[in-house]
Amino acid sequence: MSDGALLETGEPLEYNPFLPDVHEDPYPLYDRLRTEDPVHWNAPGIWILTRYADAATMLRHPRMSSDFRNSELFQAFREMSGQAQLDEREPSMLFRDPPDHTRLRGLVSKAFTAKVIDGMRAHIREVVDALLDDVGERGEMDVVADLAAPLPVIVICELLGVPNEDHATFAGSSADLVHTLDPMVGLDVIERANASAVAFDQYFIDLIAERRAAPHDDLLSALIAAEEEGSKLTQEELLTTLILLLVAGHETTVNLISNGTLALLRNPDQLARLRTEPGLLKGAVEELLRFDSPVQLTGRIALEDMEFGGKRVRAGQQVVALVGAANRDPAQFSDPGRLDLGREESRHVAFGGGVHFCLGASLARAEGQAAIGAMVARFPGLEAAGRPEWRETITLRGLRSLPVSL
Ligand code: HEM
Questions:
Q1: What is the whole-number distance in angstroms between the Cα of residue 364 and the centre of ligand 1?
Q2: CA dist., res. 224 & res. 98, Å (int)
Q3: How far is the CA of 400 from the centre of ligand 1 (A)?
Q4: What percentage of residues in the chain have a pLDDT greater than 70?
Q5: Whose CA is nearest to atom 13 of ligand 1?
Q6: Could you tell me if the CB of 162 is within 6 A of ligand 1?
Q7: What is the spatial distance between Cα 282 and Cα 366, in angstroms, rounded to a whole number?
Q8: Which of 187, 222, 332, 397 has the fewest C-beta atoms under 10 angstroms from its C-beta?
Q9: Nearest Cα to 91, choosing from 206, 299, 211, 244?
Protein backbone atom coordinates (compact mmCIF):
# COMPACT_ATOMS: atom_id res chain seq x y z
CA MET A 1 0.00 0.00 0.00
CA SER A 2 1.40 3.43 -0.87
CA ASP A 3 1.50 6.14 1.78
CA GLY A 4 -1.07 8.09 -0.18
CA ALA A 5 -3.57 5.20 -0.14
CA LEU A 6 -4.02 5.67 3.59
CA LEU A 7 -5.61 9.00 2.92
CA GLU A 8 -8.36 7.55 0.77
CA THR A 9 -11.78 6.71 2.14
CA GLY A 10 -12.20 2.96 2.59
CA GLU A 11 -8.59 2.31 3.58
CA PRO A 12 -7.96 1.57 7.28
CA LEU A 13 -7.85 4.83 9.19
CA GLU A 14 -4.75 5.36 11.25
CA TYR A 15 -2.99 8.45 12.55
CA ASN A 16 0.60 7.89 11.54
CA PRO A 17 2.39 11.23 11.29
CA PHE A 18 5.65 9.49 10.37
CA LEU A 19 4.47 8.52 6.86
CA PRO A 20 6.24 10.79 4.35
CA ASP A 21 3.02 11.97 2.61
CA VAL A 22 1.37 12.75 5.92
CA HIS A 23 4.46 14.51 7.16
CA GLU A 24 4.60 16.71 4.08
CA ASP A 25 0.89 17.56 4.20
CA PRO A 26 -1.10 16.19 7.17
CA TYR A 27 -4.31 18.05 6.35
CA PRO A 28 -6.01 15.46 4.07
CA LEU A 29 -5.58 12.82 6.83
CA TYR A 30 -6.86 15.26 9.46
CA ASP A 31 -9.98 15.89 7.32
CA ARG A 32 -10.58 12.15 7.00
CA LEU A 33 -10.18 11.55 10.72
CA ARG A 34 -12.49 14.47 11.59
CA THR A 35 -15.16 13.22 9.19
CA GLU A 36 -14.98 9.46 9.73
CA ASP A 37 -13.78 9.01 13.31
CA PRO A 38 -13.33 12.30 15.18
CA VAL A 39 -12.57 10.57 18.49
CA HIS A 40 -10.14 7.99 17.18
CA TRP A 41 -8.48 5.15 19.13
CA ASN A 42 -4.99 4.88 17.70
CA ALA A 43 -2.07 2.55 18.23
CA PRO A 44 -0.36 2.24 20.70
CA GLY A 45 -3.38 3.27 22.81
CA ILE A 46 -4.01 7.01 22.49
CA TRP A 47 -7.23 8.88 21.75
CA ILE A 48 -6.88 11.34 18.86
CA LEU A 49 -9.25 14.34 18.71
CA THR A 50 -9.62 16.32 15.49
CA ARG A 51 -12.75 18.42 16.04
CA TYR A 52 -12.34 21.99 17.24
CA ALA A 53 -15.04 21.63 19.91
CA ASP A 54 -13.44 18.48 21.37
CA ALA A 55 -9.94 20.01 21.34
CA ALA A 56 -11.21 23.16 23.06
CA THR A 57 -13.00 21.05 25.72
CA MET A 58 -9.93 18.90 26.33
CA LEU A 59 -7.63 21.90 26.73
CA ARG A 60 -9.88 23.49 29.34
CA HIS A 61 -11.04 20.37 31.21
CA PRO A 62 -10.00 20.46 34.90
CA ARG A 63 -9.80 16.63 35.02
CA MET A 64 -7.44 16.45 32.06
CA SER A 65 -3.90 16.32 33.43
CA SER A 66 -0.77 17.65 31.74
CA ASP A 67 1.40 15.51 34.00
CA PHE A 68 2.42 12.53 31.87
CA ARG A 69 3.36 10.59 34.99
CA ASN A 70 -0.40 9.97 35.31
CA SER A 71 -0.43 8.08 32.00
CA GLU A 72 -0.63 4.27 32.07
CA LEU A 73 1.02 4.13 28.66
CA PHE A 74 3.89 6.37 29.76
CA GLN A 75 4.50 4.24 32.85
CA ALA A 76 4.48 1.05 30.76
CA PHE A 77 6.90 2.57 28.22
CA ARG A 78 9.16 3.75 31.03
CA GLU A 79 9.35 0.30 32.61
CA MET A 80 9.96 -1.35 29.26
CA SER A 81 12.71 1.04 28.17
CA GLY A 82 14.41 1.54 31.52
CA GLN A 83 13.93 5.27 31.00
CA ALA A 84 13.32 5.67 34.71
CA GLN A 85 17.07 5.49 35.25
CA LEU A 86 17.79 8.23 32.76
CA ASP A 87 16.24 11.39 34.09
CA GLU A 88 14.33 11.84 37.28
CA ARG A 89 14.09 15.61 37.22
CA GLU A 90 10.74 17.26 38.01
CA PRO A 91 8.94 18.29 34.82
CA SER A 92 8.46 21.95 33.85
CA MET A 93 5.19 23.88 34.29
CA LEU A 94 4.08 22.66 30.84
CA PHE A 95 3.77 19.16 32.31
CA ARG A 96 2.48 20.01 35.77
CA ASP A 97 -1.04 20.52 37.11
CA PRO A 98 -2.32 23.10 39.61
CA PRO A 99 -1.30 24.05 42.25
CA ASP A 100 2.38 23.55 41.23
CA HIS A 101 1.62 24.76 37.72
CA THR A 102 -0.04 27.92 39.08
CA ARG A 103 2.94 28.71 41.33
CA LEU A 104 5.57 28.17 38.62
CA ARG A 105 3.66 30.08 35.94
CA GLY A 106 2.93 32.95 38.33
CA LEU A 107 6.65 33.55 38.84
CA VAL A 108 7.39 34.20 35.17
CA SER A 109 4.08 35.48 33.82
CA LYS A 110 4.85 39.13 34.69
CA ALA A 111 7.73 39.09 32.21
CA PHE A 112 5.41 38.10 29.34
CA THR A 113 2.39 40.39 29.65
CA ALA A 114 1.17 42.17 26.52
CA LYS A 115 2.36 45.47 28.07
CA VAL A 116 5.93 44.27 28.63
CA ILE A 117 6.03 42.82 25.11
CA ASP A 118 4.67 46.07 23.61
CA GLY A 119 7.68 47.78 25.15
CA MET A 120 9.94 45.36 23.26
CA ARG A 121 8.39 45.82 19.81
CA ALA A 122 10.71 48.57 18.59
CA HIS A 123 13.76 46.55 19.61
CA ILE A 124 12.40 43.37 17.99
CA ARG A 125 12.01 45.34 14.74
CA GLU A 126 15.61 46.54 15.05
CA VAL A 127 16.83 42.97 15.42
CA VAL A 128 14.78 41.93 12.36
CA ASP A 129 16.14 44.86 10.35
CA ALA A 130 19.72 44.04 11.27
CA LEU A 131 19.24 40.40 10.22
CA LEU A 132 17.66 41.47 6.91
CA ASP A 133 20.36 44.09 6.28
CA ASP A 134 22.82 41.21 6.23
CA VAL A 135 20.97 39.44 3.39
CA GLY A 136 19.56 42.37 1.42
CA GLU A 137 22.63 42.65 -0.81
CA ARG A 138 22.69 38.95 -1.66
CA GLY A 139 19.40 38.93 -3.55
CA GLU A 140 18.46 35.60 -1.95
CA MET A 141 18.10 34.14 1.51
CA ASP A 142 17.07 31.10 3.47
CA VAL A 143 14.15 32.38 5.54
CA VAL A 144 14.87 29.78 8.24
CA ALA A 145 18.64 30.19 8.65
CA ASP A 146 18.84 33.92 8.02
CA LEU A 147 15.81 35.20 9.93
CA ALA A 148 13.37 32.76 11.53
CA ALA A 149 15.94 30.76 13.51
CA PRO A 150 18.18 33.53 14.89
CA LEU A 151 15.42 36.01 15.85
CA PRO A 152 13.71 34.09 18.69
CA VAL A 153 17.03 32.99 20.23
CA ILE A 154 18.30 36.58 20.31
CA VAL A 155 15.02 37.85 21.80
CA ILE A 156 14.58 35.21 24.51
CA CYS A 157 18.27 35.33 25.49
CA GLU A 158 18.05 39.12 25.82
CA LEU A 159 14.88 38.83 27.90
CA LEU A 160 16.46 36.28 30.21
CA GLY A 161 19.77 38.11 30.38
CA VAL A 162 22.01 35.61 28.57
CA PRO A 163 25.09 37.49 27.25
CA ASN A 164 25.28 38.01 23.45
CA GLU A 165 28.38 35.90 22.98
CA ASP A 166 26.56 32.83 24.36
CA HIS A 167 23.46 32.96 22.12
CA ALA A 168 24.82 30.49 19.56
CA THR A 169 25.23 27.81 22.26
CA PHE A 170 21.47 27.58 22.62
CA ALA A 171 20.34 27.06 19.06
CA GLY A 172 21.78 23.53 18.70
CA SER A 173 20.89 22.28 22.18
CA SER A 174 17.30 23.44 21.96
CA ALA A 175 16.93 21.38 18.75
CA ASP A 176 17.90 18.23 20.73
CA LEU A 177 15.45 19.01 23.50
CA VAL A 178 12.55 19.72 21.18
CA HIS A 179 12.51 16.10 20.00
CA THR A 180 11.36 14.98 23.44
CA LEU A 181 7.98 16.63 22.73
CA ASP A 182 7.32 14.02 20.04
CA PRO A 183 5.33 10.82 20.43
CA MET A 184 7.23 7.51 20.69
CA VAL A 185 10.75 8.87 20.84
CA GLY A 186 13.60 6.38 21.10
CA LEU A 187 16.11 6.04 23.91
CA ASP A 188 18.86 7.63 21.79
CA VAL A 189 16.75 10.78 21.44
CA ILE A 190 16.09 10.87 25.18
CA GLU A 191 19.79 10.38 25.92
CA ARG A 192 20.79 13.23 23.57
CA ALA A 193 18.16 15.48 25.13
CA ASN A 194 19.35 14.62 28.62
CA ALA A 195 22.93 15.43 27.63
CA SER A 196 21.76 18.82 26.32
CA ALA A 197 19.77 19.44 29.49
CA VAL A 198 22.86 18.70 31.58
CA ALA A 199 24.92 21.12 29.44
CA PHE A 200 22.20 23.79 29.81
CA ASP A 201 22.13 23.20 33.57
CA GLN A 202 25.89 23.67 33.84
CA TYR A 203 25.79 26.84 31.77
CA PHE A 204 23.00 28.32 33.88
CA ILE A 205 24.49 27.22 37.21
CA ASP A 206 27.54 29.35 36.34
CA LEU A 207 25.44 32.28 35.08
CA ILE A 208 23.18 32.10 38.17
CA ALA A 209 26.26 32.37 40.39
CA GLU A 210 27.33 35.52 38.49
CA ARG A 211 23.86 37.10 38.72
CA ARG A 212 23.50 36.18 42.37
CA ALA A 213 26.67 38.12 43.11
CA ALA A 214 25.66 41.04 40.88
CA PRO A 215 21.94 41.12 39.93
CA HIS A 216 20.95 42.75 36.61
CA ASP A 217 17.61 44.10 35.49
CA ASP A 218 16.64 40.86 33.71
CA LEU A 219 14.30 37.90 34.09
CA LEU A 220 17.07 35.61 35.31
CA SER A 221 17.86 37.92 38.24
CA ALA A 222 14.12 38.16 39.06
CA LEU A 223 13.83 34.36 39.11
CA ILE A 224 16.93 34.04 41.27
CA ALA A 225 15.33 36.44 43.76
CA ALA A 226 12.25 34.16 43.84
CA GLU A 227 14.47 31.14 44.38
CA GLU A 228 16.30 32.89 47.23
CA GLU A 229 12.98 33.39 49.01
CA GLY A 230 12.98 29.60 49.29
CA SER A 231 9.32 28.66 49.36
CA LYS A 232 8.55 29.82 45.82
CA LEU A 233 11.07 28.16 43.53
CA THR A 234 13.69 25.47 44.07
CA GLN A 235 17.02 25.55 42.23
CA GLU A 236 15.92 22.53 40.14
CA GLU A 237 12.67 24.27 39.21
CA LEU A 238 14.58 27.40 38.29
CA LEU A 239 16.77 25.44 35.88
CA THR A 240 13.80 23.58 34.39
CA THR A 241 11.94 26.86 33.86
CA LEU A 242 14.91 28.45 32.09
CA ILE A 243 15.21 25.47 29.74
CA LEU A 244 11.46 25.53 29.07
CA LEU A 245 11.52 29.20 28.13
CA LEU A 246 14.35 28.66 25.68
CA VAL A 247 12.86 25.56 24.13
CA ALA A 248 9.17 26.60 24.07
CA GLY A 249 10.05 30.02 22.74
CA HIS A 250 12.49 28.96 20.06
CA GLU A 251 11.40 26.47 17.39
CA THR A 252 7.72 27.34 17.78
CA THR A 253 8.46 30.89 16.68
CA VAL A 254 10.86 29.72 13.95
CA ASN A 255 7.95 27.67 12.60
CA LEU A 256 5.48 30.55 12.75
CA ILE A 257 7.79 32.74 10.65
CA SER A 258 8.84 30.06 8.16
CA ASN A 259 5.51 28.18 7.78
CA GLY A 260 3.80 31.57 7.55
CA THR A 261 6.13 32.78 4.82
CA LEU A 262 5.69 29.52 2.90
CA ALA A 263 1.89 29.86 3.09
CA LEU A 264 2.15 33.40 1.70
CA LEU A 265 4.45 32.28 -1.12
CA ARG A 266 2.00 29.52 -2.03
CA ASN A 267 -0.89 32.02 -2.01
CA PRO A 268 0.49 34.95 -4.03
CA ASP A 269 -2.89 36.74 -4.03
CA GLN A 270 -2.73 36.91 -0.22
CA LEU A 271 0.91 38.00 -0.27
CA ALA A 272 -0.01 40.81 -2.68
CA ARG A 273 -2.95 41.73 -0.46
CA LEU A 274 -0.71 42.08 2.59
CA ARG A 275 1.67 44.24 0.59
CA THR A 276 -1.05 46.67 -0.42
CA GLU A 277 -2.89 46.53 2.93
CA PRO A 278 -0.19 46.45 5.64
CA GLY A 279 -2.91 47.17 8.21
CA LEU A 280 -3.88 43.49 7.85
CA LEU A 281 -0.61 42.34 9.45
CA LYS A 282 -1.94 41.48 12.92
CA GLY A 283 -4.88 39.47 11.59
CA ALA A 284 -2.64 37.94 8.92
CA VAL A 285 -0.34 36.45 11.56
CA GLU A 286 -3.37 34.94 13.35
CA GLU A 287 -4.55 33.43 10.08
CA LEU A 288 -1.07 32.02 9.39
CA LEU A 289 -1.03 30.48 12.89
CA ARG A 290 -4.37 28.84 12.14
CA PHE A 291 -3.56 27.76 8.61
CA ASP A 292 -0.34 25.79 9.28
CA SER A 293 0.05 25.67 13.05
CA PRO A 294 3.62 25.61 14.44
CA VAL A 295 2.50 23.27 17.25
CA GLN A 296 0.36 20.51 15.74
CA LEU A 297 -0.71 18.61 18.82
CA THR A 298 -0.77 18.49 22.57
CA GLY A 299 -1.67 15.73 25.00
CA ARG A 300 -3.47 15.23 28.30
CA ILE A 301 -4.22 12.29 30.58
CA ALA A 302 -7.76 11.64 31.80
CA LEU A 303 -7.86 11.65 35.60
CA GLU A 304 -11.32 10.08 35.61
CA ASP A 305 -13.54 8.23 33.16
CA MET A 306 -15.23 10.65 30.77
CA GLU A 307 -16.94 10.81 27.40
CA PHE A 308 -15.83 12.40 24.13
CA GLY A 309 -18.08 12.22 21.09
CA GLY A 310 -19.95 9.22 22.49
CA LYS A 311 -16.74 7.30 23.29
CA ARG A 312 -15.62 6.35 26.77
CA VAL A 313 -12.18 7.63 27.75
CA ARG A 314 -10.90 5.80 30.82
CA ALA A 315 -8.88 7.28 33.69
CA GLY A 316 -5.15 6.94 32.94
CA GLN A 317 -5.59 7.01 29.15
CA GLN A 318 -3.82 9.53 26.98
CA VAL A 319 -5.77 11.97 24.80
CA VAL A 320 -4.14 14.00 22.04
CA ALA A 321 -5.77 17.07 20.54
CA LEU A 322 -4.52 17.68 17.00
CA VAL A 323 -4.72 21.45 17.18
CA GLY A 324 -3.55 21.61 13.57
CA ALA A 325 -6.72 19.67 12.64
CA ALA A 326 -8.98 21.64 15.01
CA ASN A 327 -7.80 24.81 13.28
CA ARG A 328 -9.06 23.41 9.95
CA ASP A 329 -12.48 22.31 11.25
CA PRO A 330 -15.25 23.54 8.91
CA ALA A 331 -17.65 23.59 11.87
CA GLN A 332 -15.57 26.45 13.29
CA PHE A 333 -13.96 28.14 10.26
CA SER A 334 -15.68 28.67 6.94
CA ASP A 335 -13.72 27.23 4.00
CA PRO A 336 -10.87 26.30 6.41
CA GLY A 337 -8.43 25.13 3.72
CA ARG A 338 -8.34 28.64 2.23
CA LEU A 339 -5.78 31.15 3.44
CA ASP A 340 -7.73 34.36 4.00
CA LEU A 341 -5.75 37.11 5.68
CA GLY A 342 -8.90 39.13 6.20
CA ARG A 343 -10.71 36.30 8.03
CA GLU A 344 -12.92 37.69 10.77
CA GLU A 345 -13.25 34.67 13.07
CA SER A 346 -9.77 33.86 14.35
CA ARG A 347 -10.37 31.92 17.57
CA HIS A 348 -7.72 29.37 16.61
CA VAL A 349 -6.18 27.04 19.19
CA ALA A 350 -2.60 27.35 17.89
CA PHE A 351 -1.55 28.63 21.33
CA GLY A 352 -3.62 26.02 23.18
CA GLY A 353 -6.23 27.08 25.72
CA GLY A 354 -7.10 26.94 29.40
CA VAL A 355 -4.50 27.24 32.16
CA HIS A 356 -1.60 26.20 29.91
CA PHE A 357 -2.45 28.77 27.20
CA CYS A 358 0.89 29.76 25.70
CA LEU A 359 2.72 32.05 28.09
CA GLY A 360 4.75 33.50 25.22
CA ALA A 361 1.84 34.20 22.85
CA SER A 362 2.29 38.00 22.91
CA LEU A 363 6.01 37.66 22.34
CA ALA A 364 5.53 35.15 19.51
CA ARG A 365 2.95 37.41 17.87
CA ALA A 366 5.27 40.43 18.13
CA GLU A 367 8.14 38.47 16.56
CA GLY A 368 5.94 37.00 13.83
CA GLN A 369 4.49 40.39 12.95
CA ALA A 370 7.92 42.06 12.89
CA ALA A 371 9.57 39.35 10.77
CA ILE A 372 6.79 38.77 8.24
CA GLY A 373 5.89 42.47 8.06
CA ALA A 374 9.50 43.46 7.34
CA MET A 375 10.06 40.78 4.69
CA VAL A 376 6.90 41.74 2.82
CA ALA A 377 7.67 45.46 3.03
CA ARG A 378 11.36 45.23 2.11
CA PHE A 379 11.38 42.58 -0.60
CA PRO A 380 8.78 43.26 -3.32
CA GLY A 381 10.20 40.42 -5.42
CA LEU A 382 9.94 37.79 -2.66
CA GLU A 383 9.56 34.38 -4.35
CA ALA A 384 10.21 30.73 -3.55
CA ALA A 385 13.59 29.60 -4.92
CA GLY A 386 13.81 25.84 -4.44
CA ARG A 387 12.00 23.14 -2.56
CA PRO A 388 11.22 23.75 1.11
CA GLU A 389 12.38 20.95 3.39
CA TRP A 390 10.39 19.88 6.46
CA ARG A 391 12.03 18.98 9.75
CA GLU A 392 11.35 15.49 11.06
CA THR A 393 9.64 16.71 14.26
CA ILE A 394 5.96 15.77 14.72
CA THR A 395 4.60 17.87 17.58
CA LEU A 396 6.25 20.94 16.14
CA ARG A 397 5.67 21.36 12.41
CA GLY A 398 8.29 23.42 10.67
CA LEU A 399 10.75 23.82 7.87
CA ARG A 400 14.44 22.99 7.89
CA SER A 401 15.03 25.46 5.09
CA LEU A 402 13.04 27.84 2.92
CA PRO A 403 15.15 29.32 0.11
CA VAL A 404 13.73 32.49 -1.46
CA SER A 405 14.86 35.06 -3.97
CA LEU A 406 14.24 38.69 -3.08
C1 HEM B 1 4.32 30.79 17.43
C2 HEM B 1 4.96 30.49 18.50
C3 HEM B 1 4.38 29.66 19.61
C4 HEM B 1 3.40 28.72 19.58
C5 HEM B 1 2.58 28.25 18.38
C6 HEM B 1 3.25 28.22 20.92
C7 HEM B 1 2.32 27.26 21.29
C8 HEM B 1 2.10 26.84 22.58
C9 HEM B 1 1.07 25.91 22.98
C10 HEM B 1 0.10 25.21 22.04
C11 HEM B 1 1.15 25.77 24.33
C12 HEM B 1 0.23 24.94 25.20
C13 HEM B 1 0.63 23.51 25.31
C14 HEM B 1 -0.36 22.70 26.10
O15 HEM B 1 -1.42 23.17 26.49
O16 HEM B 1 -0.07 21.53 26.34
C17 HEM B 1 2.25 26.59 24.77
C18 HEM B 1 2.67 26.70 26.07
C19 HEM B 1 3.76 27.44 26.46
N20 HEM B 1 4.50 28.31 25.68
FE21 HEM B 1 4.25 28.66 23.75
N22 HEM B 1 4.14 28.85 21.73
C23 HEM B 1 4.85 29.75 20.98
C24 HEM B 1 5.83 30.62 21.42
C25 HEM B 1 6.26 30.75 22.71
C26 HEM B 1 7.23 31.69 23.19
C27 HEM B 1 7.91 32.76 22.34
C28 HEM B 1 7.41 31.42 24.52
C29 HEM B 1 8.31 32.08 25.52
C30 HEM B 1 9.42 32.60 25.35
C31 HEM B 1 6.53 30.33 24.87
C32 HEM B 1 6.43 29.79 26.11
C33 HEM B 1 5.48 28.86 26.48
C34 HEM B 1 5.38 28.32 27.82
C35 HEM B 1 6.27 28.68 29.01
C36 HEM B 1 4.30 27.43 27.81
C37 HEM B 1 3.78 26.61 28.99
C38 HEM B 1 2.67 27.37 29.65
C39 HEM B 1 2.02 26.59 30.75
O40 HEM B 1 2.24 25.38 30.89
O41 HEM B 1 1.28 27.23 31.51
N42 HEM B 1 5.83 29.95 23.75
N43 HEM B 1 2.80 27.26 23.70
A1: 9
A2: 22
A3: 20
A4: 92
A5: 352
A6: no
A7: 9
A8: 187
A9: 244
* CA gap 257, 147 in Å, rounded: 8
Global pTM? 0.93
* 3-state DSSP of the chain: CCHHHHHCCCCCCCCCCCCHHHHHCCHHHHHHHHHHCCEEEECCCEEEECCHHHHHHHHHCCCEECCHHHCHHHHHHHHHHCHHHCCCCCCCHHHCCCCHHHHHHHHHHHHHCHHHHHHHHHHHHHHHHHHHHHHHCCCEEEHHHHHHCHHHHHHHHHHHCCCHHHHHHHHHHHHHHHHHHCCCCCHHHHHHHHHHHHHHHHHHHHHHHHHHHCCCCCHHHHHHHHHHCCCCCCHHHHHHHHHHHHHHHHHHHHHHHHHHHHHHHHCHHHHHHHHHCHHHHHHHHHHHHHHCCCECEEEEEECCCEEECCEEECCCCEEEEEHHHHCCCCCCCCCCCCCCCCCCCCCCCCCCCHHHCCCCHHHHHHHHHHHHHHHHHHCCCCEECCCCEECCCCCECCEEECEEEC
Is-contact 318 44, C-beta < 8 A?
no
CB-ligand 1 contact for 156 (6 Å cutoff) = yes
Residue type, 285: V
> In whole angstroms, how far apart are CA 130 and each of 59, 134, 249?
38, 7, 21
pLDDT at residue 9 greater than cutoff 80: no
Residue 192: pLDDT band by 50, 70, 90 thresholds?
A: confident
pLDDT by residue (tens digit) across 239-280? 999 989 988 889 999 999 999 999 999 999 999 999 999 999
Which of 317, 307, 325 shows the shortest CA–CA distance to 35?
Answer: 325
Length of the chain: 406
Q: Which amino acid is at 276?
A: T
